[in-house]
Amino acid sequence: MNEKLRYWMLVLPGLAVMVIFYIWPVLNIWGISVTEPAAGLGNYTRMFDSRAVQVSFVLTFRIAAITTVACLILGYVVAYTIANFAGRVRPLMLGLVLLPFWVSVLIRSFAWIVLLGRSGLVNDTLIGAGLIATPIRFMHNELGVLIAMVHVMLPFAVLPMLTNMRGISDSYMKAARGLGASEWRAFREVYFPQTLPGVFSGGLLVFVLSLGFYVTPALLGGGRVMMISEYITYQIQEFLNWGLGAALSVVLLLATALVLLVAARFVNLRKTFLERSS
Amino acid sequence: MTRSPLRILFSTGSWAVLAFLVLPILIVIPVSLTDTSFIGLPREHLSLQHFETFLESPKWLHATWTSIWIGAVVAVAATTLGTAFSIGCWFLSDRAAMIARWVMIVPILVPPVVQSLGFYKFWVTLGLIDSHTGVILAHTLLGLPYVTISVFAALANLDRRLPQAARNLGASLGMTIRTVIVPAIRPGMITGGVFAFIVSFDEIVGVLFLTVRRVETLPKMIWEGIQESVDPVIAAVATILVFITLLITLFGMLRSK
């Protein structure tokens, strides 16, 4: 027993810091949402009546869903190639996935602004080549936000799928081929089902991170594509509306929790989050 | 193996995706060398003027230095707390320890704006707004999940009989940890520390909520720069950071070979 107490002495400092300075303040947001500016559920009724809030929530889920699907498709191709075909170029391909992962989100968003802006490099090139007369709007709309978000989230989809695929023995595919299946059929019916845990894992990671994403949508959306995180800061910065911001935060947090709860039926949450290999 | 259609499809596709991942980032390099005073490709000749602006600006240099030292303090704090935590949980290996581990990774799941709002209100009460201590504390909390994940991954590969043998031979718990466990899990600790440093070095939302004017970090300068005027000096900063990342990635690739 004494021994167990000693182990807890090791656990406690970190755990206490996390509970006191993180968990408690986050839970306290609920308190703010029902006390500011006045006690009661006023913020929640106002929020559910607001058309702008509904639009923002729908937009957030739509962008998160599209980003997730795009990342899974593009990421699957990359992960599959690295796991099965790459050979000598494997370290190079892996490096090219990891490099963007380590470059800050702020820098990556800046690069997209430089490319997609009204007088950005893409528009300049197209006009210079005489292909278009007036600049195309790539930014400050959903398209720009989506392009940049897929770019930022892609490594998060590739890495769990790659971990999963590396654990799949190629003897199944060989057996299927030996028994006369075409390569496509062997892939579809034998290989693909085995990769589903990795796909779900990567998809969940991307979806959850996208739901609460702030930096890229705020920079590429230019105030016109307001995902819920930006809506919250907007309420707080422009109107000092802490109560509504807190109520929105509570709902966003609950939405995230709900997604995780539903996902727990299909995804091994422990492998996705706790035992994530970096 | 023969070049089957499926293989060609996947290889071509993945090179295209990798180009999409990497090329847009590299665009900051030519832009940083522009001879113009606005964002764009160089017109007449290449120029290092924007790098000079960065290196001669006390504001930019000060912000860079602030980000580096805050990141270093955060890395040490998060690695210390997170390693002790993980070792304790590893010894316990019961249900309570499992719950504690989940509690520790909550910051990965909570949206940045939500946690920053929580920080702000609490930091006001504590008087930590616009202070370096306040930023260090917030960043340490955000770095802890990554430290516990990578340290625990290292512990999972450790033979439980090793610390047991040390204990049976009379070593105290503290001595066992120092001489048996820590040397074995050092790679995991280093990975965790590097993660914590990078989390802090890149963190922007918390800093925007928690600081006013006294604390300026590099991401905050970049953020403000993008919002106010799109000055090519940001491209110069971006280029420097991309090069550092490139070198570290190359180094990591060579080492893992």
From TrEMBL, chain A:
Localization (cell): Cell membrane
Bilayer disposition of the protein: Multi-pass membrane protein
InterPro entries for the chain: MetI-like, MetI-like_sf
Record keywords: Cell membrane, Membrane, Transmembrane, Transmembrane helix, Transport
Record flagged with keyword GTP-binding: no
Protein's name according to its UniProt entry: ABC transporter permease
Source species, domain of life: Bacteria
From TrEMBL, chain B:
Superkingdom assignment: Bacteria
InterPro entries tied to this protein: MetI-like, MetI-like_sf
Family stated for the protein in its record: Belongs to the binding-protein-dependent transport system permease family.
Swiss-Prot/TrEMBL keywords: Cell inner membrane, Cell membrane, Membrane, Transmembrane, Transmembrane helix, Transport
PANTHER family reported in the protein's UniProt record: INNER MEMBRANE ABC TRANSPORTER PERMEASE PROTEIN YDCV
PROSITE patterns from the UniProt entry: ABC_TM1
Membrane topology: Multi-pass membrane protein
Name of the protein in its database record: ABC transporter permease
Major subcellular site: membrane
Subcellular location: Cell inner membrane; Cell membrane
Ranges for domain ABC transmembrane type-1: 64-252
Lineage of origin: Bacteria, Pseudomonadati, Pseudomonadota, Alphaproteobacteria, Rhodobacterales
Signal sequence region: none
Transmembrane segments: 12-33, 68-92, 99-123, 135-156, 192-212, 233-254
